[in-house]
Design a protein that fits this description.
Blueprint (H helix, E strand, L loop, with lengths): L4 E14 L2 E14 L3 E5 L6 H8 L7 E6 L2 E2 L5 H7 L3 E4 L3 H4 L6 H11 L5 H14 L16 H13 L5 E5 L7 H18 L2 E6 L2 H7 L2 E6 L2 E7 H6 L4 H8 L42 H5 L5 E4 L2 E3 L6
Parallel strand pairs: 3-8, 3-9, 6-7, 7-8
Antiparallel strand pairs: 1-2, 1-4, 4-5, 9-10, 10-12, 11-12
Helix pairs in contact: 4-5, 4-6, 5-6, 6-7
Length: 318
């Protein structure tokens, strides 16, 4: 195993019981992630992206499969060992206001994780809070503010500072910019990229926005109804997508051309994602796929290698 491989996810699945039925939220997902790199997880709402992110952090327990972080199998760790390892694994949530305690000041919220992990003294933790606020672009006075007194962009910067407080190696970014104004999104994305380069952070970046994922990611995994239908280095996936679902996702990206003659028609994805309580047989995407054949309707495709680092679960992929 290469020394720079930080995370290994092997055949991980997760189901929930809903209304007496089995809901397959994540099914047979595998990937590896090197230190300092970013894996983008993309797909529509309900594709299992956030569930997978929580499985990686063991905020949820997988039904099957292995998650190995830094050479340690998370499922085999005892409570105290897992708690210690959590210093190295953090998450940035989609809605920063919902992830912060409204009765705690910003400074207390950032300091809280350090206190729980018994890191430093009260004075050293307060100095660390000031350093973190400055690093994410907020004035030190913000430490005395409550969440309701800050804007969405400021709150997300607080969330980033809190995630950094324990000097993590891996951060799961769960749609961290989707609730922000577009101009603020750009600032936060650039901040995340700068922090990654400065601290050699490893990201799992969850989003339904492929344009954002393309900018940040080294590799991309496309999820549909809990399964990875395509996975490849970012540049290769954007240059040569193999799965029809990936293609329609790319065609649905709104782009502003620099010249009128470069203007392209925006192609929306047809239909709705099926209910995970009653997924279709064969290829799960076949009810919405313009290229579906009888084989697609009857036989579930296996992921196959179409190039050295490019996988796709499609009968028609070459």
């Amino acid at each position: 195993m290469p020394d720079n491989r930080l995370l290994e996810v092997e055949n991980v699945s997760k189901t929930f019981r809903v209304q007496g039925k089995k809901l397959r939220a994540v099914e047979n997902v595998s990937f590896t992630l090197e230190a300092g790199k970013t894996l983008g997880l993309v797909g529509e709402s309900g594709s299992g992206k956030s569930t997978l992110g929580r499985l990686v952090l063991r905020l949820l327990d997988a039904d099957q499969g292995r998650i190995v972080f830094g050479g340690k199998d998370l499922a085999k760790l005892k409570k105290n060992d897992l708690r210690a390892l959590r210093r190295e694994m953090q998450i940035i949530f989609q809605d920063p206001s919902a992830s912060l305690n409204p009765r705690m000041t910003v400074g207390s919220a950032i300091e809280d994780a350090m206190a729980i992990q018994r890191i430093g003294t009260k004075e050293s933790r307060r100095r660390r809070v000031s350093e973190l606020l400055e690093r994410v672009g907020l004035p030190d006075e913000v430490r005395h503010a409550y969440p309701h007194e800050l804007s969405g962009g400021q709150l997300q910067r607080v969330g980033i500072a809190r995630a950094l407080s324990l000097d993590p190696k891996l951060i799961v970014c769960d749609e961290p910019v989707s609730a922000l104004d577009v101009s603020i999104q750009v600032q936060v994305i650039q901040l995340l990229r700068d922090l990654q380069q400065e601290f050699n952070l490893t990201y799992i970046f969850i989003s339904h926005n492929l344009a954002v994922v393309e900018y940040l990611s080294d590799e991309i995994a496309v999820l549909y109804l809990g399964e990875v239908v395509e996975q490849a280095p970012a540049d290769e996936l954007f240059a040569s997508p193999k799965h029809p679902y990936t293609r329609v996702l790319l065609q649905s990206i709104l782009k502003v051309p620099d010249r009128p003659e470069k203007r392209q028609k925006l192609v929306p994805i047809q239909g709705e994602i099926p209910s995970p309580l009653d997924p279709p047989g064969g290829c799960a995407f076949h009810p919405r796929c313009p290229f579906a054949t009888d084989k697609c309707r009857a036989v579930k495709p296996e992921r196959k290698r179409v190039s050295e680092r490019h996988l796709a679960a499609c009968h028609l992929a070459e």
